């Protein structure tokens, strides 16, 4: 990670200059992973400035952005008031959600058992729902659909169904994934929304899991989630 002492002397600032460098800087695009962090920022009320980083190579593979995230993926943040009052640059949406939850004391229980229960569901999304739903999108809706061998798409349809079934079991009799609304809900709901974007709701059996669908509507109706769908604004 590039050494820096303020937002304005980080290389990313040369391409996406901060107008208000004393507030948290968000570099993102409203994909499922981007929406997670925008929604968390909206939920917490933490002041921030959003910069639109498109998924084009000219943005995410630019030297300026790679100085912030060498993995060339959105979202990423710079918090000028990080631990010890020093600036902190951070990438990976799950890590950012945990950081923001701990910074603000919101949406992650201070009770150790509940905290780890929440984190396990965050990891479920990061390691399961996100990657598998993303592959479903590639093979079902995008370039991968041209592949003659249909085993890849069948695999990801099946895995998406399985993950939705896991959520249905978990959410039956519950309003939220853990006891209260948390970063587990914030990180998971945007990925379920992607099924509509992929045109894949019917093929994965949307409409057959009432607990998941009730939870999804409950979470996505929150004003912060609705706002996050266009934060940062698309060009």
TrEMBL record:
Residues 21-108 form the GST N-terminal domain. Residues 111-235 form the GST C-terminal domain. Transmembrane segments: none annotated. Pfam families: GST_C, GST_N. It comes from the Bacteria. PANTHER family: DISULFIDE-BOND OXIDOREDUCTASE YFCG, GLUTATHIONE S-TRANSFERASE-RELATED. Belongs to the GST superfamily. This is Glutathione S-transferase N-terminal domain-containing protein. It comes from Rhodalgimonas zhirmunskyi.
């Amino acid at each position: 990670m590039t050494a820096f002492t303020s937002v304005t002397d980080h290389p990313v600032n040369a391409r996406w200059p901060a107008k208000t460098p004393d507030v948290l800087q968000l570099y993102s695009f409203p994909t499922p992973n981007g929406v997670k962090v925008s929604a968390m920022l909206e939920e917490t009320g933490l002041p921030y400035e959003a910069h639109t980083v498109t998924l084009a190579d000219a943005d995410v593979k630019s030297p300026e952005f790679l100085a912030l995230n060498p993995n060339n993926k959105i979202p990423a943040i710079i918090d000028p008031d990080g631990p010890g009052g020093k600036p902190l640059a951070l990438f990976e949406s799950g890590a950012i959600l945990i950081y923001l939850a701990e910074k603000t004391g919101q949406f992650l229980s201070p009770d150790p058992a509940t905290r780890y229960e929440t984190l396990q569901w965050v990891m479920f999304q990061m390691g399961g729902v996100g990657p598998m739903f993303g592959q479903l999108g590639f093979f079902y809706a995008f370039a991968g659909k041209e592949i003659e061998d249909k085993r890849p798409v069948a695999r990801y349809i099946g895995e998406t169904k399985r993950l939705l079934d896991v959520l249905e079991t978990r959410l039956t009799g519950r309003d939220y994934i853990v006891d209260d609304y948390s970063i587990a809900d914030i990180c998971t709901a945007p990925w379920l929304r992607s099924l509509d974007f992929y045109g894949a709701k019917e093929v994965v059996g949307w409409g057959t899991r009432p607990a998941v669908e009730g939870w999804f509507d409950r979470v996505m109706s929150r004003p912060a989630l609705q706002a996050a769908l266009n934060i940062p604004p698309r060009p």
